[in-house]
Amino acid sequence: MKFKILDKQTPFKRFFKIDVYKFQHELFAGGWSEPFTREIFERGNAVAILLHDPINDTVLLVEQFRAGAINDEQGPWMQEIVAGIVEEGETKEDVARREAFEEAGCEVNELAFIMDFYPSAGGSTELISLYYGAIDLSTLDTGIHGLASENEDIRTSIVSRNEALTQLREGKIKASLAIIALQWLALNK
Which residues form the Nudix hydrolase domain (predicted)? Predict the structure, then answer.
């Protein structure tokens, strides 16, 4: 199937950017759609890493303020996994290791690729690359991490897999990266 970009404008560009596209695409029934307009949130690609201790069956979760959840009844502090945006010249594996150190104070040697996915393809170009990092969490100091230059205030915690999955079932974990990673863990490890 084919599509056409009839027009593209960028009315907003700061930390993030929004492009406005005018499209047409082929229809499943044949022919072409009428031209239509969509605003696309250009977020860039990101990497997330599930840090899991396979010996003790624990996971590392990070908690931080998320502006997009400002109206959530539980508040805008979300339980997540380590993640960050890919910067120019970095490999996805570099990002996973950098973010694990910045957000959780740990070094990850071996990474296993899980999958790429679009968390919201209806309105964003963001592609997430999800990784698994087996790590000894028993000696890791939990606490406050993150880069002040990025306004990060990240609290880490280590919980059992069962506790993480209970939080997931109870709706306490609402961040898509953590949901997908924990469901993957439940199915695969």
Answer: 42-181
